[in-house]
Specification:
Chain A: InterPro entries: PqiA-like. The complex is a heterodimer of chains A (211) and B (210). Chain A is mainly alpha-helical and 211 residues long. Chain A is built from seven helices and seven strands; from the N terminus they run ββββαββααααβαα. Chain A has two domains: 41 residues, no CATH class; 158 residues, Butyryl-CoA Dehydrogenase, subunit A, domain 3, CATH 1.20.140. In chain A, helix 1 packs antiparallel against helix 6 and helix 3 packs across helix 4. Chain B has 210 residues and is mainly alpha-helical.
Chain lengths: 211, 210
């Protein structure tokens, strides 16, 4: 074997395995702004940023407020030949509510509203005590894990591109006006992208563990 | 990027007789079956997980067929009803000179799903072949598949928005067709298939005898 035997004597508590390729690393705290990549596959493992917990909390609150606005304000309005119809975000999900497509209405509502909100709540719940230097609240690990696991299914940004496509499809046929909810949603995806850039998973897991 | 891509001889958690959590990276001894830090189930690096990959992959493929055969949208304008499939919708946009949007729909609903079926099958088959070490190109492919797969959902959202908005009675109304459900299921199943794939297998060479 060509491996050095030294790492074997190390305490597993100080090790970290790359989730993408299983390579063992010695986990350590980095100065803010530095990044640690896996030495085999190059996946970013640790990327702390200055006061990132506070930033994530602030951005999550912003996102929640924008989402609540997006739910209650009108989203799009269409008018053609003197007829009008408007729809909220809720109405968009409910487009599938007739007949046997109903489960799809539930799925769409989860993907564009419920899961993004859940992720905001879970992040605030996890990080609020940690940002204040207190031990993590009970079940913080479960909350953060669920937030991570639900990430691929929260599709706010895909929804807004879908809206753009729908607007182009309707462009020649009718007049469509954009409601406040549309703009709230646009702001929301920027907030989500900013928030994600501040999340360093390892740093958060480490903080949860230290209690 | 300054990393040595080929000749890194690395000790893995498996080699060290340990098991790494794929969710949070914490390392445990073999007798743990759940990660005590994040609560995720610990998975050994073996090919058993590929069964789940293939099962979701097949389910996704099966639902992709009706998604293309049945109409995605039913459009009623002034008494005349028109039904559009996914490809039909893209062709119609192209005819109306909306080339950009036609391309988005075509890429998101046809090229990405088909590309995903091929890519996941290729990755899963390459893993079964013990002589090959996938390495960086395979990991890159897997990352692209994971990143891009969810974007196929665009078409489902377009259908939802159009059917919610265009309800102008006799003048024009749009209703979702059965393909919307099977397409959404197909996308969800292929996402689950990609998520079941364990990228650590890409790096596993022939079984080491220690």
């Amino acid at each position: 074997m060509s491996f050095q035997s030294a790492p074997l004597e190390l305490d597993p508590a100080q090790l970290m395995a790359c989730p993408q390729c299983d390579a063992l690393h010695q986990a350590q705290h980095l100065p803010d702004g530095k990044r640690a990549r896996c030495r085999r596959c190059g996946t970013v493992l640790i990327s702390p940023r200055e006061r990132s917990f506070l930033h994530v909390i602030a951005l999550s609150f912003t996102g929640m407020i924008l989402m609540i606005g997006a739910i209650f304000f009108p989203f799009l309005e269409i008018s053609a030949r003197g007829l009008h119809h408007e729809s909220s975000i809720f109405g968009v999900a409910m487009a599938f509510s007739e007949g046997w497509l109903a489960p799809l209405a539930f799925a769409v509502l989860s993907m564009i509203v419920a899961l993004p909100i859940f992720r905001f709540v879970a992040l605030i719940y996890t990080l609020w005590p940690l940002a204040n230097g207190r031990p993590a609240w009970p079940h913080a690990a479960t909350m953060f894990r669920l937030a991570e696991e639900s990430q691929p299914w929260a599709m706010a940004e895909i929804f807004i591109i879908g809206t753009a496509v729908a607007l182009v499809k309707l462009a020649g046929l009718a007049k469509v006006s954009l409601g406040p909810a549309f703009w709230a949603f646009c702001a929301l995806i920027i907030v989500i992208a900013l928030k994600d850039s501040f999340v360093s998973k390892w740093t958060i897991w480490d903080a949860i563990e230290r209690k | 990027m300054g990393r040595d891509r080929t000749q890194v001889n690395v000790l893995t958690a498996t080699d060290a007789g340990l098991i790494g959590c794929t969710r949070c990276g914490k390392v445990w001894t073999r007798d743990h079956s759940y990660c005590e830090r994040c609560g995720a189930k610990l998975r050994k690096v073996d090919t058993h997980g590929l069964q789940a990959v293939w099962a979701w992959w097949l389910a996704g493929l099966i639902f992709y067929i009706p998604a293309n055969l049945y109409p995605m949208l039913r459009t009623a304008t002034l008494g005349a009803e028109q039904k559009n499939t996914i490809v039909g919708g893209a062709i119609e946009l192209w005819r109306h000179h909306n080339y950009g949007v036609a391309l988005i729909i075509f890429v998101a609903s046809v090229m990405i799903p088909i590309g995903k079926f091929i890519a996941v099958a290729y990755l899963a088959l390459a893993v079964g072949n013990e002589k090959r070490r996938g390495g960086h190109p395979h990991l890159r492919l897997f990352e692209v598949v994971e990143f891009i797969g969810r974007w196929s959902m665009i078409d489902v959202f377009v259908v939802a928005i159009l059917s919610a908005l265009v309800q102008l009675g006799f003048v024009a109304s749009i209703h979702p067709g059965p393909a919307a459900a099977s397409f959404a299921l197909s996308v969800a199943f292929t996402m689950l298939s990609a998520q079941s794939f364990d990228p650590r297998l890409i790096w596993r060479g022939p079984e080491r005898v220690i």
